[in-house]
Amino acid sequence: MLSRRNFLRLAAGAAALPVLPRLARADTYPNRPVRLLVGFPPGGVTDIVARLIAPVLSERFGQQFVVENKPGASSNIALDETVRATPDGYTLFLVSAANSFNATLYDNLHFDLLRDVTPIASIGRDAFIMVVNPSFPAQTGAEFVAFAKANPGKVNMATSGKGSTSDLYGELFKSLAGVDMVAVHYRGVGQALPDLLSGRVDVMFFPLVGVLATIKAGKLRALGVTTPTRRSVVPDVPPIGDFVKGYEDIDWTGIGTAANTPPEVIATLNKAVNAVLADPVFVGKLADLGVDPFPSTPPDFGKFIADYTAQWGKIIRAAGLKAE
Question: In angstroms, rounded to a whole number, what is the distance separating the alpha carbons of residues 116 and 80?
């Protein structure tokens, strides 16, 4: 996980970003504090991205954008609260790839992602990284595949929960590499990491931002990133697609809100987020986390979410996965 010292440094750096021009506030949105709900505990990529962008939006608008962590059910609890809120732009949600997965993983959701959520703006695209305990016999991704094939059912793969992003990226790896690994489900990355560090489990697909310092300290060995190209923060780590044909995926974050929110509010927020993403200092903060800026219009972000949800819906159904 990201150390407290590094997290505070990044948050302080975001707060110290150059002040962007403030929007006129008289009788316009927002004229009171705005909630930004995060459906996961502090320290994960969605929480970190939210806490980087919230103070910059606060400065731009002259109103507080307050991050609230409401973890549970792979962020479904926070999203359910968002879609039930008054559609006025004062309750926002840090939407992520997990919400696209949940659309297929969960049978009894009280909302429909594509119907009940209005996309506002995408923020960033980032990677997960395949890591093993340094004592694991494989030194490279290709060696890992060969070892797993020679030892079916003997490699333990940690996940942050059944149906979680780490689980799904691992299931995709198993399918495309043709290997049999035993999934060991935890209640979050924070619970899985100690067992990975101690060698009780062998491999995990981990959010890059949450394990970068651990890799650089030599406590874990990185074998591949989920993205189609290398990441500048770990330039020596190849894409998994280099040793598992067809493997590719990009994690992402953005902001959404309840359906029927006034279009002028959506447009105002989209313009502000895209202005932040054009600032080189903020982009540098994202780069330190291995995150690329991902500006878009609301319709383009909506299409991206719909396409991503459909793509992963096919993978999840083919694997017969359901959330616990």
Answer: 10
The Cα 100–Cα 109 span in angstroms is 12
Residue 212, amino acid: L
311 in helix, strand or coil? Answer: helix
Per the CB < 8 A criterion, the answer to whether 90 and 34 are in contact is yes
pTM higher than the cut 0.85 = no
Domain shared by 146 and 227, yes or no: yes
Looking at 190, 222, 242, the residue that finishes a domain is: 242
Range of the domain at 181: 128-242
Same domain, 256 and 108: yes
pLDDT (tens digit per residue) in 249-304: 999 999 999 999 999 999 999 999 999 999 999 999 999 888 999 999 999 999 99
Residue type, 264: E
Name the 3-class secondary structure at 290: coil
Domain count, the chain: 2
How far apart CA 199 and CA 312 sit, in angstroms, is: 31
| Domain finish residue from 242, 272, 300 | 242
Best CA proximity match to 95, nearest among 119, 65, 125, 71: 119
